[in-house]
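Notebook entry, structure prediction.
Reason for the run: the old model in the group folder had no record of what sequence produced it. Starting over properly, with the input documented here first.
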Amino acid sequence: MAIFSLWLPTIPPKIGRLTGGLNLFWKEKQNNSEIFSFKSNDRRLSYRVSPSANAPIVFEFGGEKVQVVNIGAGGLAFKNKGFKSGDTQAIELLLPHQNVTLAPVLEINTVDDQNVCHCQFREIEEDEVEALHQYVLKRQKEITMLKNASDSL
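New structure, fully documented this time:
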């Protein structure tokens, strides 16, 4: 005995004249997160930028001078010099062109296959987070201007 199923499209209920007679909103029970899903391995909560080659960010971690690969309000990354996940230390960072010195605690979350330490800021002050946001915004503008200039050539 064969079983057949017939698929019929669901017609939205009519609501009124203002919406053309259609319900323009999702039903409460519908799972909206599946409609706009985006899968990524990126666990960051803030956007990161690479410092300018003309104005690198260098700091000391574990007795070694390291250069920032990328930075954002939540953390930064730098080339590994023998560190491991879980290493934690208070650091001092000077953000270029801002005359702001940050003094957060930095914890290495992971070291990737390219030998880059991915770190998270711990015990960071609110004004330091704001300074990082301002730095990221400024770098985004610089990067956009450089990209637009090279596109116009």
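Summary: DSSP finds one helix and nine strands in the chain.
The old model has been moved to the deprecated folder.
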